[in-house]
Design a protein that fits this description.
The chain is of the alpha+beta class. It has one domain. The chain is built from six helices and eight strands.
Length: 271
């Protein structure tokens, strides 16, 4: 007579414990792998965006959309610009228009969305077309007027309203999770991004923020990546020369410092 040998209770418990231990060991590694792949995908987005900027400016007298009037096909009137004492008029209402006017160069609005951006996923993820309603969350914008938006944008990246090809070290664009609330000395993270608060997410449009010489310092209140969204205490930057960088908070301070070597600049956060 053939006998069948089954697991004893103790043997079954040993197998369960081994599986639990292996899972505990592997899950953090898998999570880290996912985070790294999202960061790589994001920096590839910024490379495509940088190429779009360079292609666009080649047909517009070596000027980026931020420097070209809307009447000439640019988006100058939709961005905040620094004047040393604050943000200049006209009153910016939708810096996402910088990307809109480059739709031919960008090809797809998907490159404007970071896969680690859980905040904008709440608005149904990335845009599928370059329409005002889908990408910008508003009806037809009016240059120089701050109009309310019906919903959030589907754009993960900020815009430097004063970036110029003449200053290749300028930070032109990058992950939007930058703030200075509760950022501490020694390159500590911010608790939430510009335009947000401790209890609420940003509302549209977010008031542009001037980058000053103190913003890139390492003291309390310096600009920093946020602790809990996008790439968590790190992020990606697109430079005016078309290159891209993946940096920590201390690296962010270095690049912000370089961006203020020649002049002040205004960062615009499409939300």
């Amino acid at each position: 007579m053939k006998s069948t040998k089954a697991f004893t209770v103790i043997e079954l418990l040993v197998v369960v414990i081994i599986i639990a231990v292996l899972s505990a060991m592997l899950l953090p590694a898998l999570a880290a792998t996912k985070g790294n792949s999202q960061k790589i995908y994001c920096i590839n987005n910024l490379k495509q965006i940088g190429l779009a900027f360079r292609t666009w400016e080649a047909s517009h007298n070596s000027r980026y959309p931020q420097a070209v009037s809307y009447s000439s096909g640019g988006a100058n009137e939709y961005c905040g610009h620094a004047n040393g004492a604050g943000i200049t008029a006209p009153n910016p209402n939708n810096p996402g228009m910088v990307f809109m006017v480059m739709s031919n160069q960008l090809v797809t609005p998907k490159v404007l969305f970071c896969p680690a951006d859980n905040y904008h996923w709440a608005g149904n993820g990335y845009a599928t077309n370059f329409s005002y309603g889908d990408l910008l969350g508003c009806s037809t914008p009016v240059a120089g007027q701050r109009a309310p938006q019906s919903g959030m944008t589907k754009i993960s990246y900020f815009i430097n309203g004063d970036a110029s090809e003449a200053d290749p070290q300028d930070v032109m664009t990058g992950d939007g999770n930058i703030g200075n609330q509760t950022a501490t000395a020694n390159n500590g993270a911010a608790s939430y991004r510009f335009g947000a608060s401790a209890t609420s997410q940003p509302s549209s449009p977010v008031t542009p923020v001037q980058l000053s010489a103190t913003a890139w310092g390492v003291g309390a209140g310096a600009w920093a990546w946020t602790a809990n969204d996008l790439h968590q205490k790190s992020g990606n930057l697109g430079m005016a020369d078309g290159s891209c960088q993946s940096v920590s908070i201390s690296g962010l301070h270095t690049y912000l410092q370089n961006s203020t070597n020649s002049a002040m600049c205004a960062f615009n956060f499409p939300e």
